[in-house]
């Protein structure tokens, strides 16, 4: 990675995440925040509430973000990057609006945002930008001059995101019994989203079957398969599959589901599977419940050996990647040339989401994009 140091014009980094409950009393209000106006069936909400109660009503996502904050601050300090790091969530405390208010009070005027979502899609990008716009509107209504907020480009193909995940897949393979290891399939998983949302994900030119969302995940999967082959000499068969589907059953969402996929592989005589949740940045509830609990129980029932590989979480290589992305963007904003690190076939993603990128069903103002109502 190139050694870049200067962070002007930015005076702060905002870690923007999903948020999660921190105890049993938080679960229902959290789910209400997440699903406000989104038409999720009541049955699904009750079921998802149970996932959280199974873990004492605590999502691991907040502690994972605290660990990432520590890793980022440590990395910045060790590399002479003088940039304070703040944290705000979309759906639970510390709430984004409160954090932005605090940042404004601290005199932060030019903020760069890292979202804990690496790929394009309405849920993974525009919804974060809509919530940024909502928070900025609240500040403006309170008479606070809203700071300027940019968002880092999608980092799915940054080596600091891909390589730690590839190492984890190798570790999971090594952890399988030796007699089934070479025949193991790799099941790359991500959050299912409605087909219609996938098809319109990314900029207009990426729209089509699966859109940027599926194309980006496939690119990452291929990169990991390549790294695994180089390391082990084995070309493991693989497929991109989905998890955590919600929404009404008559609306098509991306398939197959990981559990159906495990059943199919078992039926075909596959001896073992590594599940690699490449769609996520940390081992949060979607990983702990949908993979480690549900899919792992399904595999046990089938008698199919499975392992689940780790996400990047607070890996120091990921923290270094964030530094690289911040300094790259800072250079770009200063009008200087910057090296844009990216692996794979798609190349570095755009800095500024163009108009029509990952459109919403019901248009809402979104910040940090070409259609932002803010500077
Ligand atoms: C693409 C994507 C990501 C990855 C990108 C990113 O990370 O942002 C993601 C992450 C997450 N999703 C999470 C939790 C939930 N997502 C829900 C609902 C939904 N997610 C969707 C998509 C995504 N979700 C969609 C299309 C819906 C349907 C409703 C709607 O159209 O908005 C619901 C409602 C109940 C249910 O339906 O499951 C919950 C509770 C948590 C927190 C986990 C924790 O607590 O540890 C995290 C990190
Ligand atoms: Fe979700």
What does this structure look like?
The protein is α/β, with parallel strands linked by helices. The protein folds into 2 domains: 12-154 and 314-333, Rossmann fold (3-Layer(aba) Sandwich); 159-308, Rossmann fold (3-Layer(aba) Sandwich), CATH 3.40.50.1400. Helix content is 44%, strand content 11%. It is built from 12 helices and 8 strands. The protein has helices at residues 27-35, 42-54, 61-78, 96-105, 122-141, 159-175, 178-181, 195-199, 211-232, 258-267, 285-302, 316-333; strands at 12-17, 85-89, 110-115, 148-151, 185-191, 238-243, 273-276, 306-308. Strands 2-1-3-4 form a 4-stranded parallel β-sheet, with helices on both faces. Helix 6 (159-175) packs across helix 9 (211-232). It starts with 11 loop residues before the first strand and ends in a 42-residue tail after the last helix. The model has no long low-confidence stretch (mean pLDDT 96). Residues 18, 20, 31, 34-35, 38, 40, 44, 48, 59, 61, 116-117, 121, 123-124, 191, 193, 244, 246-247, 279, 284-286 line the site of coproporphyrin III (HT9).
């Amino acid at each position: 990675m190139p050694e870049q140091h200067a962070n002007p014009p930015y005076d702060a980094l905002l870690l923007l995440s999903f948020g999660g409950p921190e105890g049993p009393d938080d679960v229902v209000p959290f789910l209400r925040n997440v699903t406000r106006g989104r038409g999720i069936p009541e049955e699904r909400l009750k079921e998802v509430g149970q996932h959280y109660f199974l873990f004492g009503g605590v999502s691991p996502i907040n502690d994972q973000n605290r660990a990432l904050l520590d890793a980022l601050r440590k990395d910045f300090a060790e590399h002479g990057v003088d940039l304070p790091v703040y944290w705000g969530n979309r759906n639970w405390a510390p709430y984004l609006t409160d954090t932005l208010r605090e940042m404004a009070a601290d005199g932060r005027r030019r903020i760069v945002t890292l979202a804990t979502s690496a790929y394009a899609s309405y849920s993974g990008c525009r919804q974060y930008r809509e919530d940024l716009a909502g928070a900025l509107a609240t500040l403006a209504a309170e008479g606070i001059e809203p700071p300027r907020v940019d968002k880092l480009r999608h980092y799915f193909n940054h080596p600091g995101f891909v390589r730690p995940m590839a190492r984890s897949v190798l570790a999971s393979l090594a952890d399988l019994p030796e007699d089934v290891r070479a025949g193991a399939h790799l099941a790359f998983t991500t959050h299912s989203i409605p087909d219609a949302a996938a098809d319109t994900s990314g900029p207009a030119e990426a729209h089509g079957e699966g859109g940027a969302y599926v194309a980006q995940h496939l690119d990452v999967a291929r990169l990991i398969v390549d790294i695994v082959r180089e390391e082990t000499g084995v070309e493991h068969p693989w497929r991109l599959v989905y998890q955590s589907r919600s929404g009404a059953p008559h609306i098509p969402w991306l398939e197959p589901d990981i559990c159906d996929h495990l059943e199919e592989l078992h039926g075909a005589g596959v001896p073992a599977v590594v599940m690699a949740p490449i769609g996520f940045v940390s081992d949060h509830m979607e990983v702990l419940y949908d993979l480690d609990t549900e899919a792992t129980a399904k595999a046990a029932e089938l008698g199919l050996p499975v392992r689940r590989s780790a996400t990047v979480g607070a890996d120091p290589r990921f923290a270094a990647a964030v530094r690289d992305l911040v300094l790259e963007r800072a250079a770009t904003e200063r009008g200087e040339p910057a090296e844009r690190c990216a692996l794979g076939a798609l190349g570095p993603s755009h800095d500024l989401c163009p108009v029509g990128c990952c459109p919403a069903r019901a248009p809402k103002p979104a910040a940090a994009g070409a259609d932002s109502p803010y500077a």
